[in-house]
């Protein structure tokens, strides 16, 4: 039996793991899905005060409240920032990090650091115009979703807290690299805002050479939301880990 904590990406909520959680439970694992403050079923808490540290503490609090150890911490997309931070804070409680088509930052980078200038301007401008300093979700077509999957995500996505976007994350890469890591690259279609991440997690120089040892790279031929577009495929990877 393994212990999983699943952390969704931007605009999503714990709801996005709906088709993965039962598979993990049926396989005998414990699995918890976090909803980050201001998103999903906690969207009523959206406020300009929510920042990167709020979301980091959401994940830490779940691990502590459930008294979990040897956690396989899974982060989707934006949540790559969060699981990196949590690994730096409580490394002894974790057994593996799984980056699901996720941001893998360098020390001092923000979520926005690897995005194009155009994407940064669009999101920052939208947040500045919003009373709650948030920016709206994209059309789910960019995640490769169609039909009922598209409609479900279109209904469920909510605005994302803007203070999380440009906040730098300082961490010790050697501490994080002490935990085994898996990067899952979703390629059909590949999401443009993750394109800069794929080569760095294959690089001998990333994190000063600390990333590549004790890490694995797995490709899924599905879109950016594999928990929705290919839940069985994602479960098989998690179960094998």
Characterise the protein shown here.
It is a single chain. It is built from nine helices and eight strands. It is of the alpha/beta class. The protein has one domain: Rossmann fold, CATH 3.40.50. The strands form two sheets. The protein has a six-stranded parallel β-sheet, sandwiched between helices. Strand 7, helix 7 and strand 8 form a beta-alpha-beta unit. The chain is globular and about 45 Å long. The N and C termini lie close together (11 Å). The model has no long low-confidence stretch (mean pLDDT 98).
CATH class: Alpha Beta
Helix content: 25-40%
Main sheet overview: 6 strands, parallel
Total E-strand runs? 8
At CATH level 2, the architecture is 3-Layer(aba) Sandwich
Strand content: 15-25%
Find the CATH superfamily: Alpha/Beta hydrolase fold, catalytic domain
